Amino acid sequence: MLGYATRKLLISVVVLFFATLVAFLLVATVDPIAEQRVFLLSQPGGAEQIDRLEASLGLDKPLIERYGSWLGDLATGDMGISTDNGRPVTTLLGEAIPVTLRLVIAATVISVIVGVAVGVVSAIRQYGAFDNISTFFAFLFFAMPVFWLGAVLKDLGIRFNDWWGRRIFFTIGEQSPRLDADFWGTWADRAGHIILPALTLIAIQLAATSRFQRSAMLDVLESDYIRTARAKGVPQRRVITHHALRNALLPVVSFTGLTFGTLIGGTVVTEVVFNWKGMGRLFLESLLNGDVAVAQGWLLAVGISVIIVNLLTDLTYGFLDPRVRDG
Amino acid sequence: MAEVPVGILAGAPAETEARSQWRLVLRRFLAHRLAVAAGIVLVVAYVFSYLAEPLTGWGYKDLSSDLSQGPSADHWFGTDTIGHDMFAQSMRGLRVSVHVSLVVAGIATVLGSIMGAVQGWFRGRVDGALGLLVDFLLILPLLPVLMVLGTRTRASGGSSLMFVAVVIGLFLWAPLARVVRGEVFSIREKEYIEAAEALGASNSRIIFRHLIPNVMSSIIVYATLTVATAILLETALAFLGFGIQPPEVSLGSLVDEGRDAARTRWWLFYLPGAVLVLLVLCVNFVGDGLRDALDPRREQRR
Amino acid sequence: MTDQAGTGGDVPVLSVRDLEVVFPTPDDDVQAVRGVSWDIYEGEVLAIAGESGSGKSVSVMAAMGLLPATARVSGSISYRGRDVLAMTDKELEQLRGSAISMVFQDPMTSLNPVMTVGAQIAEGVRIHQRTKTAIARSKSVELLHLVGIPNAPQRVDSYPHELSGGMRQRAMIAMAIANDPDLLIADEPTTALDVTIQAQVLDVLERAREAAGSALVVITHDLGVVARTAHRLLVMYAGRAAETGMAEEVFERPGHPYTAGLLGAIPRLDAPKGTRLMPIDGSPPSMLAPPPGCAFAPRCPRATEICSQETPTLRPIGNQQAACHHAEDQYNSKANNTNNKTKEDRDDQR
Q1: Is C249 part of a structural domain of the chain?
Q2: Assigned domain for C52 exists
Q3: Is residue C314 assigned to a domain?
Q4: pTM of the model
Q5: Chain C residue with the nearest C-alpha to that of A244
Q6: Is C15 helix (H, G, I), strand (E, B) or coil?
Q7: What percent of the residues of chain B are helix, what percent strand, and what percent coil, each to the nearest 5?
Q8: What residues make up the domain containing C19?
Q9: How far is A138 from chain C (nearest CA, A)?
């Protein structure tokens, strides 16, 4: 197991290095002065002004040099300064990450637990009423764009509030502005804000996870070793919990790692729909403003989170499957 | 499955055998009623996107003097604040999504099939290097990456359609490549592949004439899945403002423009969204029917 | 091989009567077993032989209650007078692994990959004997030792992927005899194994059977396996019994052309040089729509008009029973007396 873990960790470090390169090259395609450029080009003497602007942003230097100096700064913990508001990128990320993390963790934990349960029950009672209903919803939410589902829930939430006569669902922001409450009051307020965005992400994730768990479980239930367990007289319940589930969890573990990137995309959209001041908003604004340092830092932070999640799923997989851990 | 008398197959030319196999696939697909219905809806909706203007008299760029009207006999999906006919706009958006997703699926399918077949056929270092790329693409948070690349479309204006399609396509081939690789690994030891190799067929001939045709079932199923993913990505990008740009129409930007009016002028938000959901749902149903038809072994585990 | 205790009048351990099993499929129903009866008595070894798809595995799966829920089963199966088909799930669970247990064909896939072999053996012991974990574990070590796995105290903690195919099948056998079952069923126990270790595993199976004092049903398509172990033989074809009798007698003088054909397909060490194996031409019929009359008729060298019209039933011929319109001809044919000796003989038979 130790050898397996070390190997996975080493691969992660290599991927991390690769990720810095990709993040840098991606953002290099963004023109930080796109809007001024259009305007200045129509002005007399605008070309020189563009040159001066580019020089002030370091754009006149070759790519490799800019990458090198970005990496050098990163090594000292410096991710640069936002050209939009002059604040350090690390500070901006530090403010945005906890907000988004609440949403991502809530959505992941709930959708994985519920998805596994739904998938297992569907597989055991294949073509039963529960299976048919969950299949219907899985297909429906599988076809639903996150941005539309989020906006629909937001609209329904507002209509519900109106009908009820009191505000139950908060549909704007991650918490009430100028909130002045104690610890519990703050979290209660946040909970009211997180319900609809989390539900949006959960519905989408759940559709995929439950289908995946269902087919993994069906595969396992058909396997020879399940027949062996039953031939041994192992009670049905124990066959499911001790023999089938542990094997059927394996594909879902790697699936969770693989879909984390999709979840990030969904989070960006959801935050935009519900006006959260989290990672999604930070990224969107950095791109709209040509704020290169923020966009680079954002991509790197997200890259690191993807690498960590995949490392964790690899380790969990190794823990669950002796064949992988030895191989 | 019904037994086929040995003599008939043995005496038949290979071509007939292949054709009858496809006929069997077609028959199984047609037995899947939901998939057939979804396929018909797709075709009708696409044809309708061209008939909308002659039928209703409104083009997607036309501005009527009816502002912010609800659905009526004249404006089926109502109108927006400046008098756009929302039905014409939605049909235009549907057509754009179909075109973009077909280009995406084309690029991703060709790339994925070739990459996967190359990995499976050459194995060793080629497989290792391409495998790293595939693994990287699989865990990549696609939407943020496409947003970065999509900042270009904000300056380019209306010519964004092809750019968006190509960029999405270049990032969407990895899942298919992984599946094709796995299947090529399992068929490469088969007699007919070994025979082709022994006869001195070149690598590219083996890949294109023998390997890829034999994993066509998976390729077709994945191509359909890719169409659905592409539609969702294209509209999400347009929703965020990094995809198809006005004056061209995307269902994503229609939803974005209509969402703040969801309470007061529901048709601006709910109708384009419903068209989008229906579109993706139908593509998924067709994909599901194709999977059952091409791989009956999996039929029971849909 | 001479021990045939109990073949007489006692109550059989397991008795199968007129068993029929049908699997509904989207296209049509598959008639896997079409009326088969057999008994097995204490201490006896019964071999059920036939090609794949002949219904031999399905009939014992039915006896274990292991068929998928969609299967339609009729007829009767009784274990020591108790009706197995009428048992509740709980009663079946108590029966399986304790009174009747089973060794499966493919040891590569029949063991749970994420549990140690020791844990898998101990599980059966704990469930049926309600013993403590430590006792179940030492019992596992004992059993692994019995089936000839070296270093049993270490191997008990191995995962299946760490063992060779032969070792895994030994572990499967250890698991099957863990509760000293009355009846052990081995479904193609050596088919998936390397030829060089097939004989060893058969020896282990025989030793395990003696240690547990069980009766044994061996299911096989390979009459070579039967020749080593079986007292009695049941040959199945297309879901029906083709022939049954004492194994040695059936070997000596088969009363069914299909049995004769199967015998022609076994390699024999005592056959003269130059003998070639004779596979049976053609393939078994589709069980979706089995042909009328004798199912073997299309492949049978002795087939006449009546064979494709009337379905033959088992009838006595000598000491055995055969379901063939031409059983007498087959039983008395000259070829039988020198069965499998030379190629020329078989050519005469044609």
Answers
A1: yes
A2: yes
A3: yes
A4: 0.85
A5: C112
A6: strand
A7: 80, 0, 20
A8: 1-95+218-267+282-350
A9: 25
What's the ipTM? Answer: 0.92
| Most trustworthy range by pLDDT among A171-185, C160-174, C328-342 | C160-174
> What's the domain count of chain C?
1
For residue C278, give both structure tokens.
Answer: 């004779």
pLDDT surpasses 60 at C9: no
Pick from B2, B6, B299: which is nearest to C288 by CB? B2
Given a contact cutoff of 8 angstroms between Cβ atoms, the answer to whether A271 and A278 are in contact is: yes
The residues of B whose Cβ lies within 8 A of any Cβ of C are: 1-3, 6, 299
Give all strands of the β-sheet with C240-246 in edge-to-edge order.
C100-103, C183-187, C215-220, C45-49, C232-237, C240-246, C320-322, C315-317
Model confidence pLDDT, tens digit, residues B109-167: 999 999 999 999 998 899 999 999 999 999 999 999 999 998 888 776 556 788 899 99
Report if residue C296 sits inside a domain: yes
As a whole number of angstroms, the distance between CA B96 and CA C31 comes to: 53
CATH of the domain at C6: 3.40.50.300
Are the CB atoms for C28 and C65 separated by under 8 Å? Answer: no
Confidence (pLDDT) at C225: 77
A21 touches chain B (CB under 8 A): no
Domains defined for chain A, CATH in brackets: 2-30+90-326 (1.10.3720.10), 34-78 (no CATH)
Residue of A nearest to B146 (CA): A26
Partner A contacted by B295 (CB < 8 A): no
Q: What pLDDT, on a 0 to 100 scale, did the predictor assign at position C347?
A: 43
3-state SS, residue A44: coil
For residue C187, what are its two tokens? 């479904």
Asked whether C335 and C348 are in contact (CB, 8 A), the reply is: yes
